[in-house]
Amino acid sequence: MNKHLLTRMQLSSSLRFIFGFFLWIGIAFTPTTATAQLCPASVTEIAPADACESVVNFTVVQVPLSTLTLTEGFPSGSVFPIGTTEVCFEQNFFGIVTGCCFNVNVLDETPPESVCLNPTLTLNASGQVAVMTTDVFDVATDACGVQPGATLSNSAFFCDDIGDNDVTVQFVDVNGNGGSCISTITVEDDIDPIALCQPITVVLDAAGMGSTTAAAVDNGSSDVCGFTLSLDIMDFTCADVGTPVTVTLTATDPSLNTGTCPAVVTVEDNQAPVLDCAG
Q1: Does residue 177 contact residue 111 with C-beta atoms inside 8 Å?
Q2: How far is CA 75 from CA 59, 88, 89, in A?
Q3: Counting Cβ atoms within 10 Å, is residue 71 exposed (0-12), middle (13-18) or buried (19+)?
Q4: How much helix, strand and coil, in percent to the nearest 5, is found in the chain?
């Protein structure tokens, strides 16, 4: 065969191959196909508990022989902040320029932390006490920060609450995660009852005996949390006639606080003597 003819045939075959290759590339890698292959779906990462950011890795599929350029956001392996960051790439394949974008979502799912305080609070003269947020906790901590303030499950206490009371303290970080701790509030009453007395008269019976009660001596004793009354001397005899007897009235509240007052008891014998004239 003619050498020149063979050369022309080989050249023609090579040109057909090259043309076919680029034709296949043009069909296989249209802008739509290239874009579809380029970007991943949105990427979601949960931030570590001690950080308000996270390292995010993703894969971008590059069309062979193309040039890939990051046009917005950060490359794979970068530190992304909490929230949504848009990442965009542009691909140039022999003059065919395509691009796409996707979202990198970094989530904060770690609740804030705090250790509650356990205060002791004293009722006022009205028998109540209000609890402030600062009474039950100092500060909550969170890598991303905490919103100001806190919510208490109970902030007012009364006589019926004397003793230990558990209160839930709730707080929220800047990304909406809620945290809580339990505060044990000890409520105390250290105010003594007010004891008020009045003088009374006790009349002996035919047997020369007489008695009284704490209620008879009481003249309006009071305590906002309630109280009971007791009297140190309640029974009297002929030996007490003629000399006023001083008794002590004691008012005791549920917290064992006491108030006292003295009262004068006059003992009388109004029984006429019985004469025995026999014999």
Answers
A1: yes
A2: 10, 9, 10
A3: exposed
A4: 15, 40, 40
Which residue has tokens 């007010």?
A: 194
Question: If you count them, how many residues does the chain have?
Answer: 279
Which segment of 195-209, 228-242, 260-274 scores lowest on mean pLDDT? 260-274
pLDDT of residue 20: 44
End-to-end Cα spacing for the chain: 187
- Written as six digits, the tokens of 187 are 């409520």
Q: Return the closest-CA partner of residue 122 out of 56, 205, 192.
A: 192
Least Cα distance to 54 among 144, 140, 114 occurs for 144
Query: How many CB atoms sit inside 10 A of residue 34's CB?
Result: 22
Instruction: Tell if the pTM clears 0.85, that is, is over it.
Output: no
Q: What is the pLDDT of residue 275?
A: 60
Look up tokens 């191959």; give the residue. Answer: 17
Name the amino acid, one letter, at 168: T
Q: Look at residue 34 in the predicted model and tell me its pLDDT.
A: 45
How far apart are the C-alpha atoms of 13 and 7, rounded to whole Å? 10
pLDDT tens-place string over residues 114-142? 999 999 999 999 999 999 999 998 888 99
* Count of other CB atoms within 10 angstroms of residue 218: 18
pLDDT at residue 121 in the model:
97
pLDDT at residue 225 greater than cutoff 50 = yes
